[in-house]
Amino acid sequence: MPPSNDSRHARIIDKRDFDISRPLLLRDTEDEDDGDDACNVGHGTNRSGQCGYGRSSNGHPGDDDDEAGSDNIERDRKALNRQVVRILSFIWGVGSALCAGSITAFSLYAPLLQTRLHYSQFRINAVAAAAAVSMYLPVAFFGYLCDRYSPGPISFISACLFGPGYLFAAFTYKSGPPVDAGGTGWPFAVMLMSFVGVGAGTCCMYLAAVTTCAKNFGRGKRKGIMLALPIAAFGLSGMWQSQVGSRLLYERGPDGQKGDVDVFRYFLFLGILLSVVGVGGTFALRIVGEEEMIDEAVEELERSGIIGESDFFRSREEVRAAISSSSMSYGTMDGTTAETGVDTPLEDDSQSLTLSREEWQDHQKEERRKKNWLLNQETRLFLKDRTMWWLAVGFLLITGPGEAYINNVGTIIPTLTPPSFPPHLSPPAGGAATHVTSIALTSTLARLLAGYLSDIFAPSPARPHLQPSSRSISFNDQHVPNPFARRNFSRLTFLLPSALLLSLGFLCLATPLSFSTPQTLHLTTALVGLGYGASFALVPIIISVVWGVENFGTNWGVVAMFPAAGAAAWGAIYSAGYEAARRAGNSDGFQQCAGWRCYGFWALGCTGSVWVAIGLWTVAWRGWRRRGVVV
Q1: Measured between alpha carbons, how far is 178 from 186 in angstroms, rounded to an integer?
Q2: Which residues pair with 261 in a beta bridge?
Q3: Cβ contacts of residue 130 below 8 Å, gap of 6+?
Q4: CA gap 112, 151 in Å, rounded
Q5: Are 190 and 178 in contact (CB under 8 A)?
Q6: Residues 466/304, Cβ–Cβ less than 8 Å
Q7: Helix H or strand E encompassing 478
Q8: What is the CATH number of domain 384-631?
Q9: According to its record, how does it sit in the membrane (predicted)?
Q10: CATH code for 89-288?
């Protein structure tokens, strides 16, 4: 009979273990006489002392083959189940991201807050700012919770925030203008707090979706596209939701004609949709193989030399053994202790179930303790890494101008429109809706393309958990050679040109050509969308490659806080320049700013900001190359 394919049942025989006086082939009678001392012809023994293949020691042929076959079937079934769970979690994660960005459709109903609720421009900006601050500031905290308690509970928190948030916003809108605005509606503070909940819910659902995709696929060969898909879906969410609101949930005029969006029904739609998606994510967003990933990362971290031996993880069994050995050396002369009694078989049976439960609970506590130890160590290493700060500050200088342009492109368009231009015609620079759609499409295309190209051309590290953190520490075999001998390019070779495209967009806006030829604003919008989108996709991919995916939620959350400061700073700079230019050229009482000075100096500043970011990212890249980091 040929040997079994399952090598686990065969004992490896070294040449020194073979008795030269023993014949190479045993007769069947000798084999039977030897009993447990020999197995079938040409076969070794397994770990239990039984024959490895064919006939077992109890005389039943094929028992071990059947057992091996059943083990293989069970292993394949478990692997299939894990793959199904991983794929379903990915699908739900992309779907969650596709719904999470509802706040990006704020411009759809912002004018109605002014006309229907009599909100001032300051109050409308306060509502938008409250949503933005609550979306960006807690991102590190919710990322921390994602890593410690899995994305499922965070998705449930998003449902608890989205549902009441949009529900209170809907009924606040329906109640009419507040008392201080001449009406009898609910106070403005209710609307403000409602959008605080909406912003925090956006943060939770986005992080839960991206973290799930990163941890389930961040160690594979397609980590780039698998991470870029939910990020790109988040950018599309506001666009499709605004289309639903304007085309399906609209008001009807007296003659049945199509009117403005019905904000009350639109808010109810968003509240119900996002609550259902959040609750579903509680069960659908699961991390597959997290215990194995944590064990591998702990072993790799201890073997790397980054931390000292005194900081190694010590299990409770090791601590107890150390305490026991020290107490035995001091307790008795011969190192033994007196017996307190002998358990009867009945007592053993009654305690077995309790012990098994206690062992299972101890195992769960031990795994939780190991996970927390690893994540704390990786957080400390992440925050101490100087290259992380170069990357984060560069991300701030990139996303700040990009966010400010997206938020203010609607006010840039009138500055390029001559005062004598007929008001009933479309502006020569294009409508605001056209530019918003262009940014959404180009940004999405850039995110998908950046993730796909990084998977094809970027190198893959040999160890997906961590990479060297100093010059003195370097791992062997950091780079996995490409079997097709394709030339590799660092992910920075995609990130830096993306930032350069963004700077070219602002440089185009800063030239006098933009004022003399307003149609060039479409080129600026396309370049900003491409550069901003690619940067927003590649930075989290780089974080997952350099610092691993075990602590991805916390690491990406820390870096993702920076765009809030950048957007606020460059938005304030734009507003200050706009108002100064308007006051300087408003001798005739015209209320809108017109001319290059309304945006030109701001665009030059944005160009310089992006160039500084390119320099900081180059410094970070040089640091990674010196340490042997494959990025």
Answers
A1: 5
A2: 250
A3: 192, 193, 195, 196, 199
A4: 36
A5: no
A6: yes
A7: none
A8: 1.20.1250.20
A9: Multi-pass membrane protein
A10: 1.20.1250.20
